[in-house]
Amino acid sequence: MANPVQFISQVRAEAAKIAWPNRREVVTTTIMVLIMATITSLFFFMVDLLIRGGLTFVLRSVGG
C-alpha cells in the first residue's frame, strides 16, 4: 500500500498533465453537440412518423 503523501503527490503530478480546453474549444464543441443532438432527434422523429404511418396503414387495411 502506498504512502498517502506519496499518493497525493502522484495525483497532483498527473493532474498537472491535463490539457484543459480553452473557452473557444468548449463553446465550439458545445454547439456541435447541440447541433448533432438536434439532427439526431429530427431523424428519429421522422423514423417514428414513418413507422407509425406504416402501422396505421397496415392495421386499417387488415381491420377494416
**Mean pLDDT, all residues:** 94
State the order of secondary-structure elements, H for helix, E for strand.
Answer: HH
Radius of gyration: 26 Å
Number of helices: 2
Shape: elongated
Secondary structure tally: strands: 0
How much beta, percentage-wise? under 5%
Query: What oligomeric state is this?
Result: single chain
Work out the helicity level: over 70%
Largest sheet: none
**Secondary-structure class:** mainly alpha
Q: Low-confidence segments, ≥5 residues, pLDDT <50?
A: none
Distance N to C terminus? 74 Å
Describe what you observe in this structure.
The protein has a domain at 21-63. Helices cover 84% and strands 0% of the residues. The protein contains 2 helices and no strands. The protein has helices at 4-16, 23-63. The protein is elongated, with a radius of gyration of 26 Å. 0% of the residues are buried. Essential subunit of the Sec protein translocation channel SecYEG. Clamps together the 2 halves of SecY. May contact the channel plug during translocation.
SSE map:
Elements: H1 4-16, H2 23-63
Structural features:
mainly alpha, single chain, 2 helices, 84% helix, 64 residues, 0% strand, Protein translocase subunit SecE
